[in-house]
Amino acid sequence: MKISEKIKRKVGHTMLVAFIGLCIVIVVNFLPTLNPETAGMSMIEGKWINVYYEREATAAMDTFCYADGEVERIARKLGFREKQAVNVYIYDAQKTMQMKKYGFIGPMLHLDWYIGDNIGTNVILTSPANPGPAHTYDDNKYAVLHEIVHAYISVMNPGIRLWLTEGCALYLANGAPIADEDLPYMKYPSFAETRTANPVRFANCGGYSFAYDYIEFLDKEYGWDKVVKLLETEDYEKVLGKDERGIYNEWIESLNDRAKRN
Predict the structure, then answer these.
(1) pTM for this predicted structure
(2) What is the DSSP string of 11-34?
(3) Is 153 exposed, middle or buried (0-12, 13-18, 19+ CB in 10 A)?
(4) For range 61-75, the mean pLDDT
(5) Rounded to 5, what percent of the chain is helix, strand, coil?
(6) Which among 179, 178, 58, 67 is positioned nearest to 123, based on CA atoms?
(7) In this predicted structure, what is the pLDDT of residue 139?
(8) What are the residues facing 90 on neighbouring strands?
(9) What Cα–Cα distance (Å) separates residue 218 from each residue in 34, 45, 56, 171, 226?
(10) How far apart are CA 232 and CA 226, in angstroms?
(11) CB 66 within 8 A of CB 141
C-alpha cells in the first residue's frame, strides 16, 4: 500500500509539472499576439484607416493610398459615417505576420498562402514588397481591402459567423460572381457547410465563390439595407421574415434556376 501511494504521488507530481510546463509553453507561444506592433514601426494616418509599417515604406505607402481611397465607400456601405478604430499593420516578413496571429508556432505551420488576416479591428498583412512564395506584390496589396471589410464588420458584430463576413468581404472588396455556365458543374455547399466556423471546411466547400453569391442574392432579393441589418443581428426571421434554412433553400433554388438556363 505504501509503495502504491508513493507511486500515485509521484505520478500526480509528474502530471502536475507537465501541466504547468504545457501552460508555460502555451503562454510563451502566444506572446507575439499580445501587441500587433513591432519595435520601431512608423504610422501613416488616413481619413478612414491608419497604417503601421516596418522598413518597407514604399510598399506601405502604396498599400495605404489604395486602401484609404476605397475604405470610405465600404464604410459608408456598411452604415458608418465616421472613421472607426481600424488599424492596418504591415510586416516586412511573412513569418512575423503569422506569429502575430498564431504565436511563435505560426511559421512552423508552413502556410505559404497565408499573408493576411484580421484580429478584430486590427488588420495584419505581409508587405507586398516581400509577398511570400505563394503570392505576388499585387496579391498582398489588394488583399488589404478584404481584411479591412472584416475589421469594419467586426465593429458591427464581433462574433459574426464566417459565411456572412467572408461573403460580405468578397462582395465588397475582391470577390467575383459565379458564371451561370459554370453552375451545372459545381457542387453546392450544404446548409451545414454554410454555418461552419472552420476556415478549411469553408474553403473546401467552395465558400470563396459561393459566399459571394449568397450575399449578392440577398442584396438583389431583399435589398442592401436588409443585408446590413442581418450582418448586425444575424436574426433571419426578424430581418428577412424567414428562418435561415428557408433563405438557404431560396438561394439554392436561384442557383438551380440559373444553372438550367445553360
Answers:
(1) 0.85
(2) HHHHHHHHHHHHHHHHHHHTGGGG
(3) buried
(4) 93
(5) 65, 10, 30
(6) 67
(7) 94
(8) 53, 125
(9) 37, 35, 40, 11, 8
(10) 10
(11) yes
